[in-house]
Amino acid sequence: MRTKPTVREAVVVEGRYDKNSLLQVVDAVVLETSGFGIFNDRQKQRLLRSIAETRGLIVLTDPDGAGFMIRNFIRGCVDPALVKHAYIPDIPGRERRKTRSSKEGKLGVEGMPPEILLNVLRRAGAAMVETPGAENPDKITKADFYARGLSGREGSAARRKALLRKLDLPERLSADGLLDVLNAIMTREDFYRLDC
User: Fold this and answer.
1) For 51-104, what is each residue's pLDDT tens digit?
2) Do residues 88 and 51 touch, judged by C-beta distance below 8 A?
3) Which residue, 80, 105, 109, 138, could crosslink 18 as a Cys pair with Cβ 3.0–4.6 Å?
4) Are the beta carbons of 24 and 114 closer than 8 angstroms?
5) d(Cα 114, Cα 112) in Å, to the nearest integer?
6) CA-to-CA distance for 95 and 99, rounded, in angstroms?
7) Cα–Cα distance for residue pair 14/160, rounded to 1 Å
8) CATH 3.40.1360.10 spans which residues of the chain?
9) In whole angstroms, what is the distance from residue 174 CA to residue 65 CA?
10) What topology does CATH give the domain 5-130?
């Protein structure tokens, strides 16, 4: 079994399909911009700045006009010294889940072969480590969420919402998104010290 490399920096992509494709290739904290939603989401902008200061960011957007608009917006709201840019090549085609090609006729992040995604992250200077064997023991897991009453129990949604408010995180962050963010900003030990 081939192990996925771990990327130290958080990777910012446009949407969930990009995130899913990337997570099949690397073990990383992957954050979504919700496309142009990042433009008006002040909480998500603060979150990106905070994570950039903690662990650095890699921006990986589609090679179309929309992707470059999002990339340039992030460049303007996060300290450029904390951001690396990964660029996928212009490859004509359409993603399998779509009935037709994008406006510009190019594959996006979700349509890239795994070896290309790995290569663009390496070229961007991602801090990548091959981690054979077990998961990182310091990583916060879904089991930890369950143990703290943040998932799978009565009232867990309300507890997550209260934690999002307490940490000044976007209120629409899903349970999986919250897990990613917490792994980006704290250790498992810090998580268990939280009052939630």
Assistant:
1) 999 999 999 999 999 999 999 999 999 999 999 999 999 988 877 777 776 777
2) no
3) 109
4) yes
5) 6
6) 8
7) 24
8) 5-130
9) 28
10) Dna Topoisomerase Vi A Subunit; Chain: A, domain 2 (3.40.1360)
